[in-house]
């Protein structure tokens, strides 16, 4: 956490001004799921609003109390209610005659495809549930899932949910070491994996990483292995079981028990952008309710006609809520894509949008900035006419990236939803409502109906419109984390101690003159330059607004005169050349002109890549280590560790 600021620096300076507005289109509004009265309805009786949303699901026993907050901050939602998350995602759609609807269009990296209906997915999940039960997995036991982006990953998750065994999905790209620490932390006894995965046209081993991790996990008794690549793997008889010898042979009959609304559904580790990942616990009833509601309202989902695509990994919370639980609870049809945006070519995503007629696309700003770098001529080659809504998540979206996305992907027709949320919040909490809210490039806008968000100063008092501070939540919400796995004290400490009675998200934010919310980056990243508290996001956005810049990361490096000095790392657009001293000077001046002299970077480094987590977030703490010539910190959740060597190699020796 940031060191305690003194009284003169109570709030974040709020420097960048963005005046473009995109009011909702009347045609969109006329058909929209959300209406402006949803805000008032939820404000007059928040708990009644959430009870009404919970009725989207099938409950075998109705709850007796919507929220029990008597032991705050440990929440219980839908007390006494019972349900099964998997049957809510599957069987009930089949029973309602929708078994032939496609649940997933799977697109493999190499172009292999599978179309899986709700009826087929239900059968596969029942088979996997029977196999897990045969392996001795009982309700409450943890199962680790270390897989590529293939349908069996979804099947494994839902099979766990069906038998009440919380899953913990670990990114297939993480090392054996990262897998081992997660298995230890949640004490998993079963691992589901595959022989290997395809990554940028190459075959990489997953089972080999599991073998290595398990050298130090004596309690893991079974490893269930999907054959994906067909590569050679080591085999431990008695422990390892092929999926095709077990799951594919199992009965498709499985009776699903119901579970308490507060039964653990999964543990998901945070991205580790700011430090060691935390094991976030989500439970069943409230989580599924809010995933279903937000997926319906924020994406304006029409289950009969939309093709929904979250282009994110299932090993990130976005994949859990908006590839698996939200879309399936709503009976939606989704695209599941295994590969990267540039395999085998840089138009791969747009080819997929065109092929499946994707109508709703949800992705991260980092992907958009990469597409900006590659150039607008690439998406221009494809028909994107099926898209009717596009969204982003993961980081603040720079206004320039928002405009690029809106113009080149949304063709100036589609609403753009910038959705703020966290692993901890379980689902989207702050976002425009399409058809209701006007779009402002760079703003996440408003707390959704049923959510009470605020921006407060150092003392916990609400800041006035036009000022910056810290984002907090004033009331509990159904899909909130229940604790950090095995560490209730850390839960209270991390989220509920900074401001008594308020949930502290760890993010800086501002309210604009209309009272709308803008995210300004993490509190850990806030810089203090000559007594002014400056946001990394605003300076990065100013850099990205320059025609030559695709991406930027800003940090505060210690400086003898100013306390901290602004150091920027930028990736140039492909047409901008290599970036000599004139370009650097031009960019420094540009920032000074856009937001003021105080924000002029002391140094700008042109780099080929930035260190990012697997979910695409810039890890500024590592850049800070480089700039200050310190040993590099924890890199276990870095997508590509060779990036740090590239950056260090290009650093001037006096930095
Ligand atoms: P760790 O907590 O371990 O450092 P993390 O915070 O990166 O990791 P996630 O839960 O994946 O892990 O990310 C949530 C964070 O992502 C938010 O707290 C916020 O900083 C950022 N974020 C997500 N969506 C948005 C958005 N729309 N605008 C701005 N920031 C966002
Ligand atoms: Mg976080």
Structure description:
The chain has 20 helices and 30 strands. A hairpin with a 5-residue loop joins strand 4 and strand 5. Helix 2 packs across helix 3 and helix 6 crosses helix 7. The protein is globular, with a radius of gyration of 24 Å. It binds adenosine-5'-triphosphate and magnesium ion (MG). The site of adenosine-5'-triphosphate has 26 residues, from strand 20, strand 24 and strand 25.
In brief:
By secondary structure, the chain is an alpha/beta fold.
Low-confidence stretches: 1-9
Number of domain modules: 2
CATH architecture of the largest domain: 3-Layer(aba) Sandwich
Q: Can you tell me the CATH class of the largest domain?
A: Alpha Beta
Q: Could you say which small molecules are bound to this protein?
A: adenosine-5'-triphosphate, magnesium ion
- Measured between the Cα atoms of the first and last residue, the distance is 25 Å
CATH fold-level name of the largest domain: Rossmann fold
What amount of the residues lies in strands?
A: 15-25%
How helical, in percent, are the residues? 25-40%
Classified in CATH, the superfamily of the largest domain is: ANL, N-terminal domain
Q: What is the spatial order of strands in the main beta sheet?
A: 5-4-17-16-18-19-20
Principal-axes geometry comes out as globular
Structural class: alpha/beta
pLDDT averaged over residues: 93
Major sheet: 7 strands, mixed
Gyration radius over CA = 24 Å
């Amino acid at each position: 956490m940031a060191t305690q600021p003194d009284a003169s620096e109570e709030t974040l300076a709020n420097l960048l001004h963005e005046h473009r507005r995109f009011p909702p289109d009347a045609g969109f509004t006329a058909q929209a799921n959300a209406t402006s009265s949803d805000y008032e309805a939820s404000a007059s009786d928040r708990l009644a609003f959430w009870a009404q949303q919970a009725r989207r699901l099938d409950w075998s026993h109705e709850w007796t109390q919507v929220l029990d907050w008597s032991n705050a901050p440990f929440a219980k939602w839908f007390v006494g209610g019972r349900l099964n998350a998997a049957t809510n995602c599957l069987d009930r759609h089949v029973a309602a005659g929708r078994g032939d609807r496609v649940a997933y269009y799977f697109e493999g990296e190499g172009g292999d495809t599978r179309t899986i209906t709700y009826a087929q997915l239900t059968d596969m999940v029942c088979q996997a549930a029977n196999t897990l039960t045969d392996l001795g997995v009982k309700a409450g036991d943890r199962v680790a899932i270390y897989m590529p982006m293939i349908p069996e990953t979804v099947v494994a998750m839902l099979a766990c949910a069906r038998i009440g065994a919380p899953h913990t999905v670990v990114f297939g790209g993480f090392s054996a070491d990262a897998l081992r620490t997660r298995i230890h932390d949640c004490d998993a006894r079963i691992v589901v994996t595959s022989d290997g995965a395809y990554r940028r046209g190459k075959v990489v081993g997953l089972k080999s990483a599991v073998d290595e991790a398990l050298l130090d996990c004596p309690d893991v008794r079974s490893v269930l292995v999907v054959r994906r690549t067909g590569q050679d793997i080591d085999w431990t008889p008695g422990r390892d079981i092929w999926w095709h010898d077990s799951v594919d042979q199992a009965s498709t009959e499985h009776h699903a028990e119901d579970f308490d609304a507060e039964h653990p559904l999964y543990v998901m580790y945070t991205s580790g952008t700011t430090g060691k990942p935390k094991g976030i616990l989500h439970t069943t009833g409230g989580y599924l309710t809010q995933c279903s509601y937000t997926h319906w309202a924020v994406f304006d989902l029409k289950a009969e006609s939309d093709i929904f695509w979250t282009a994110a990994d299932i090993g990130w919370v976005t994949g859990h809520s908006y590839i698996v639980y939200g879309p399936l609870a709503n009976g939606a049809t989704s695209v599941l894509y295994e590969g990267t945006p540039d395999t085998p070519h840089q138009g791969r995503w747009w080819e997929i949008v065109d092929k499946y007629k994707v109508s709703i696309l949800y992705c991260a700003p980092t992907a958009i900035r990469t597409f900006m770098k590659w150039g607008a001529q690439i998406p221009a080659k494809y028909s994107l006419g099926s898209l009717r809504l596009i969204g982003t998540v993961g980081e603040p979206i720079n206004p320039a990236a928002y405009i690029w996305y809106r113009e080149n992907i949304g063709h100036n027709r589609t609403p753009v939803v910038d959705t703020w949320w966290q692993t901890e919040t379980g689902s989207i909490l702050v976002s425009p409502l399409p058809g209701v809210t006007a779009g402002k490039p760079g703003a996440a806008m408003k707390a959704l109906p049923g959510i009470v968000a605020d921006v407060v100063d150092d003392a916990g008092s609400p800041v006035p419109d036009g000022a910056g501070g810290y984002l907090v939540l004033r009331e509990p919400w159904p899909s909130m984390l229940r604790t950090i796995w095995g560490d209730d004290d850390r839960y209270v400490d991390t989220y509920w101690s900074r401001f008594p009675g308020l949930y502290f998200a760890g993010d800086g934010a501002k309210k604009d003159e209309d009272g709308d919310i803008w995210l300004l980056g993490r509190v850990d990243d806030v810089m203090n330059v000559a007594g002014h508290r400056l946001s990394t996001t605003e300076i990065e956005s100013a850099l990205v607004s320059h025609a030559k810049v695709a991406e930027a990361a800003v940090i505060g490096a210690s400086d003898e005169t100013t306390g901290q000095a602004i150091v920027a790392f930028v990736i140039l657009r492909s047409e901008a050349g290599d970036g000599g001293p004139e370009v650097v000077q031009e960019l420094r001046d540009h920032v000074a002109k856009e937001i003021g002299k105080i924000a002029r970077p002391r140094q700008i480094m042109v780099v080929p890549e930035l260190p990012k987590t697997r979910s695409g977030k810039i890890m500024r703490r590592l850049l800070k280590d480089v700039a200050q010539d310190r040993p590099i910190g924890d890199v276990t959740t870095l997508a590509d560790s060779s990036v740090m060597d590239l950056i260090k190699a290009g650093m001037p020796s006096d930095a």
